[in-house]
Amino acid sequence: MGSEYNFGINPFRDFLIKVMEYGADISKSRNKKEIDISFRYILENVLKNEKEAVHLDFEITNKDGFYKIIAKNPPTAFWLSGILVENVDDMMDKNVFIIAGRKYKYNKKTGDLTFTLKK
Predict the structure, then answer these.
(1) What 3-state DSSP class applies to 75?
(2) 3-state SS, residue 70
(3) Which of 35, 56, 75, 100 could bridge to 88 as Cys pair (CB 3.0-4.6 Å)?
(4) Is residue 51 scored above 60 in pLDDT?
(5) 30, exposed or middle or buried, with CB in 10 Å at 0-12, 13-18, 19+?
(6) What does the longest C-alpha to C-alpha distance in the chain come to?
(7) Which comes out higher in pLDDT, residue 39 or 95?
(8) pLDDT confidence bin for 76, thresholds 50/70/90
(9) Gap between the Cα atoms of 61 and 20, Å rounded
(10) What counts of helices (H) and strands (E) characterise the chain?
């Protein structure tokens, strides 16, 4: 059995869930532009350097009713995971990051962000 989603932890996920509650297919290209604008607005209001929002780049797919949000670069992977990192420009060339005792790895091929606890 699943658990109830708690709002307020990840603004991007909160936004997407609300959009889907209203029946929108977030994978449709006509909705992608509105989602992108909304995500940029969120970033510009929370990042110390609002110009770093230019790195936002993602894709949303829908396969048999299951949505997948694919980040196309490391900063976007962190943002969509609800982690607002600093030094975004420095992240563009790296695949491994250590933040708050966790070692994150960004897979450029799949757009996945995984972590392990740093020993």
Answers:
(1) helix
(2) strand
(3) 75
(4) yes
(5) exposed
(6) 45
(7) 39
(8) very high
(9) 14
(10) 4, 5
